[in-house]
Amino acid sequence: MPVSAAPSTKTERTRARLMVAAFELFSRQGYEQTTVAQIAAAAGVTEMTFYRHFGSKVQLLIDDPYDPLIVKAISEQPAELPPLIRAVRGIRLAWHGLPITDEEPVRERVAIVAATPSLLPAMRASTAETEKAISEQLVADGTDPTEAAIAAAAAMAALMTGLIRWAVTDDGALGAAVERSLDVLEAGNG
Hints:
Number of helices: 10
Number of strands: 0
Largest sheet: none
Radius of gyration: 18 Å
């Protein structure tokens, strides 16, 4: 999930231009039909500049810098709580700390990923990395490794399903979608 804020440095402004150009091209001609060269040209930079900011076209859409925030928030949950509840409450706490001011780029990004079958492996890999980070924190806090892995997988599956449904249905606010996804898990296990 990207955080939207006014870009202040030259690097942030360049990244923002690249993302705007990419999303315009993706919506006009599709993800698969859009090349890195087209994105760079539309943003007024070279392909080399594109690759300095994004390792690949996929990274424009599958970028998850939030694992450390999630892990920290989970570590702050009481260890006596069940692992799934610790994961859910940690994700919720991390979510509340994100300064997302513009939901539309998030919706657009998730909708493109959901509609592009070739991106699903990258999305799964990103989700698996987050699951691993959550599981490792739960284990470090004393949870059985199998229970930790199951709790992490359940939390991420609920979160990703909620985000995708939100993006493709244009249903409500992003925050409400995240909260609803986490509420489903917590209500059944609290």
